[in-house]
Amino acid sequence: MAARRVKASLYISVDIEADGPIPGPYSMLSMGAAVAGVQDADGFTPADPEQRTFYRELRPISEEFVPEALAVSGLDRERLRTEGTEPAAALTEFTAWVREVSAGAQPVMAGYPASYDWTFLYWYLIRFTGASPFGHSGCLDMKTLYATKAGLPLRAVAKGTMPRELLSRRRHTHHALDDAIEQAELFANLMAWPGPGSPR
């Protein structure tokens, strides 16, 4: 039987900022993405996360928001009402960008934690474009990746408990592109990390 050809995965670190806990009643206000690297049958090759990036600020889709959630990003909803990109346009542009940077590979969204960012990203993609360039399950959670490699329960994982050499030296600013780039570096470090107790 012939060996199955493994198609490469192109990992894209994505971070979003929103004004509430779930999409629909609340709005995704910004999204940032950075190519983190590619994995094929020969292994993982990191990318410079500043080289291929995407960023948009979006017009809110409802009147509802949670003040505490809005305060995290520091984004101005009133400004975004007039200056934010229409969601359909932003997500169409994002899809085109993903397809361009992942030509020849399968794109995979990587998030920290993926559960929050993926919920908004996938909902917006389906709602405003009708499709997702990642499919319905093309996402990878960095917390789970670390927990598995470290042999820890998932709920025991936090960035503050990770070995310092895994973390990016960039600040986590809650600006979606800054954080996508920072987390792309974390992802590349996690992919190269053999686990605890191994030679550095």
From TrEMBL:
InterPro entries, per the entry: RNaseH-like_sf, RNaseH_sf
Alphabetic keyword roster: Exonuclease, Hydrolase, Nuclease
Name of the protein in question: Exonuclease
One Gene Ontology MF term: exonuclease activity
Native species: Streptomyces cyaneochromogenes
